């Protein structure tokens, strides 16, 4: 099952993390915002939709740059991580517990779901 996520990278180099709802699966963990690709959607349009739903921002698919993917045996999800440096609107937490702007070197100090860790490592290596 494909899942898309975005590393929104601000002009100052900080990256937006989204904290999952405390009462949900993997509650309280920090991740890159995004979600599942719905039937009939391509990954870009799914990510544009998810960023609007979770953060209230508008993103042009042309501003999404694929970076890496992560999966693990026994887990049906494959996460595709994109970077994005341009969006319209100020991100706000609409679907989780909190958002935070984090310096790249501090990403792994936040407790993340297992599939987000290699994505964070790939992001740090790319910056």
Automatic annotation (TrEMBL):
GO terms for molecular function: 8-oxo-7,8-dihydrodeoxyguanosine triphosphate pyrophosphatase activity; 8-oxo-7,8-dihydroguanosine triphosphate pyrophosphatase activity; 8-oxo-dGDP phosphatase activity; 8-oxo-GDP phosphatase activity; metal ion binding. Gene3D superfamilies: Nucleoside Triphosphate Pyrophosphohydrolase (3.90.79.10). It is an enzyme of class 3 (hydrolase). It catalyses: 8-oxo-dGTP + H2O = 8-oxo-dGMP + diphosphate + H(+); 8-oxo-GTP + H2O = 8-oxo-GMP + diphosphate + H(+). Its EC number is 3.6.1.55. InterPro entries: MutT-like, Nudix_hydrolase, NUDIX_hydrolase-like_dom_sf, NUDIX_hydrolase_CS, NUDIX_hydrolase_dom. Pfam families: NUDIX. Keywords: DNA damage, DNA repair, DNA replication, Hydrolase, Magnesium, Metal-binding, Mutator protein. Residues 1-125 form the Nudix hydrolase domain. Its cofactor is Mg(2+). Signal peptide: none annotated. Belongs to the Nudix hydrolase family. This is 8-oxo-dGTP diphosphatase. It comes from Novosphingobium ginsenosidimutans.
